[in-house]
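Support request, please re-run this one:
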Amino acid sequence: MDKILLALWPLFALITMGFVLRRTSLFSADFWPGAEKLNYFILFPALLINSLASAPLDNPKLLYLGSAIFCILAVSSLLVLLSKYLFKITIPRFGAYIQGITRFNTYLGLAIVADLFGKEGVAVAAVIMAILVPSCNVIAVLALSSGNKVSIKQLLLPIIKNPLIISCVIGILLNISPVGLPFGSEQLLKLLAAASLPLGLICIGGALQTATLRKEFKPIMVSTILRLLAMPLLAVLIAKLFSLPNLETVLLVIFFAIPTAPTAYILTRQLNGDSQLMAGIITLQTIIAVGTLPLVLSFVMH
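Re-run finished. Output below.
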C-alpha cells in the first residue's frame, strides 16, 4: 500500500497543480488549449510510438489480453444499453454515461504504469491502449449517434484522425519491420515522451469543471462508482477467466479503474450529447479516484 501511495500522490499533485494554475492569472486562457494540443498531437504520440516500437508483440498471451478487453467492453456496454431502456435514458445522456463507463484517461493510466512497472509495464500498456482507444471511440460514436443513421465515414473519421490511434499504428509497423527506430530517433522520442505525462496531468487538472457537479450529483455519483469500483472488479473476473499473467491482469485493472477521458467532453459536444453531464462525470471521477485507486491497486497487487 505504501508503494502505491508513494507512486500515486505525485500524479494527483500534478493534477491539483493544474486545477490551481488554471484559476490564477499566471497563464493566459490561450495557454491551456495550446498545451493540450501540443501534448495530444506531438508529445503523447511520441511516447506511444517509442513504447510500441519495442513492445513484445510476439507474446502469445496478447491474444488472450485482447479477448479479455473486448469482453469487458462488451459486458459493460450491454449493461449500460439495458439501463437505457429500463430507465428511459435519452440518447444525449446515454452517450455521456457509456463514455463515463468505458473510456479512460490515457495520461493518468500510463503515468501510473510507468511509476509502478517501468519500461516493461509501459510496453504492455501501449498494447492495451492500441486495442482500447479505437474500440472505445467506436462505442462512443455509436452511442451518441444511436437512433440516427450513422455512415461509415461518420464512424471511421474520428478514429482515423485520432493521433493516438495513428501513433499506435506507426509504433506497431515499426515493431514488425526491420527498420525499427533508426538514426537516433529513439532518443528524440524519449525526450518528447518525458514531457508528455507531467504536462498531460497538469492539463487534466486545468480542465476540471466543479460547477457542473451541483446540478446532477446523484447520476454523476452512480456513474463514478460504476467506473471506479465495478469496472475494475469486472476486469479482475474476466482476467481470471482468460488466465492472464499477473502483470497483464494488474495493467488491465488499472486502465479500467482510472477516471474517464477528458476528451470525452469534446466528442460529446461535437455529437450533440449532454456535454454538461459529461463534464460533471469527468470531474467527479477524477476527484474520487484519489481515494479509490490506492484501494483497488492494493487489492489487485496483493
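Residues 106-144 form the longest helix (39 residues). The chain has one domain: 2-18+29-300.
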